[in-house]
Design a protein that fits this description.
The chain is 61% helix and 2% strand. The protein is mostly helical. It folds into two domains: 135 residues, no CATH class; 136 residues, no CATH class. The chain has a two-stranded antiparallel sheet.
């Protein structure tokens, strides 16, 4: 059951790559403008962006076709494939001078960490939204040219098939990729709120100046705010997401509404650490909204799995294999010493 070919899922998967390359491209242009160096013409800048983004898209598409040909359909494999595809595109772009943001000497490898992580998210998103392709079962047809005197060959015993439907107990899966996606939600909220407050007044404060530093600041501000908030808030947000999942899993909640409510409560508890710096009237409503979104997003991308069976028991003494209410568990045998 390979992953389906889906244009809609592929478009969703390449959106994070487009946002990343646009942010890196804006940062490079802002750096060039602030330093007073030459800025590429609009046509060449657009061509460079399209070429760099197209390399990521082509590598991701080739990786999907390779996994589909190999019959690999797990989301973890698609996540690793996305990271490897973006790493390959990064290496080729670095070799042929198509990199949007040229890393400083000594940071060529470390500069690829964020693109590789975004590539892993892109591969995971494609596997999540595309779904699996179920092949129709075809029964073998006997050949008409077979001689009547020929004895039919008994078919080999087929391996047991998994049931097509399941109505037993389920739990929400523990997913690293879903945790990463949900932990990025606070950075998106902070970026949107900050830009909605700062950008309208930024032009009036700076005036209608055509100074290169002012234009560079306006160009790089959205990308820099997003990157800073991601680096600062990712680990705390991931802790909140993991706590939300573990709490909901302990109660065996599986609906998105339950995850949203638990995420809001957990994030409000975590927000108590900031009560000395931010007023409660503003802190707790925002924390509740962001926590609810993180919980719902995690539930959306994590999926469900069957409730695991009890673990096997390793026993050495057969006498210990008695129920919990057995009299031997409440009494002790007496052995006279001497």
């Amino acid at each position: 059951m390979p992953i389906r070919n889906s244009y809609r899922a592929f478009f969703i998967a390449i959106l994070p790559l487009a946002v990343l390359q646009a942010a890196l491209f804006a940062s490079r242009l802002a750096g060039d403008m602030g330093a007073g160096t030459s800025v590429p013409m609009p046509d060449s800048a657009l061509g460079l962006f399209v070429a760099r983004f197209g390399m990521d898209v082509a590598a991701l598409a080739c990786g999907h076709l390779a996994l589909r040909q190999a019959g690999i359909a797990t989301r973890a494999a698609y996540g690793l494939m996305g990271g490897a595809a973006v790493a390959l595109a990064y290496t080729l772009a670095q070799k042929h001078g198509l990199q949007l943001t040229a890393p400083t000497p000594g940071t060529v490898v470390t500069a690829a960490i964020v693109p590789v992580i975004v590539g892993m998210i892109a591969g995971f998103l494609y596997a999540q939204f595309a779904g699996r392709e179920f092949a129709a079962e075809t029964a073998p047809v006997a050949s008409a040219a077979q001689s009547p005197a020929t004895e039919p060959i008994a078919p080999a015993a087929a391996p047991p098939r998994a049931p097509a439907t399941y109505d037993g107990p389920v739990l929400v899966r523990t997913s690293i990729a879903a945790t990463v996606i949900a932990a990025a939600m606070p950075a998106i909220f902070v970026t949107v709120l900050t830009l909605s407050v700062i950008m309208p007044g930024f032009g009036s404060i700076m005036g209608a100046s055509a100074d290169r530093s002012v234009l560079a600041a306006e160009l790089a501000l959205p990308a820099q705010i997003f990157f800073i908030t991601v680096f600062v808030m990712f680990v705390p947000a991931a802790i909140v997401v993991v706590a939300t999942h573990m709490l909901a899993r302990s109660f065996r909640f599986t609906s998105g509404g339950h995850y949203a409510l638990i995420g809001a409560a957990v994030n409000c508890v975590a927000a108590l650490l900031l009560i000395a710096m931010v007023h409660a009237a503003f802190l707790f409503p925002v924390a509740a909204i962001v926590g609810a979104v993180m919980g719902a997003v995690y539930r959306r991308f994590a999926g469900i799995e069957p409730l695991p069976l009890p673990e096997d028991v390793l026993a050495q003494d057969p006498r210990t294999l008695v129920p919990a209410d057995h009299p031997s568990r409440r009494t002790h045998a007496v052995i006279m010493n001497g």
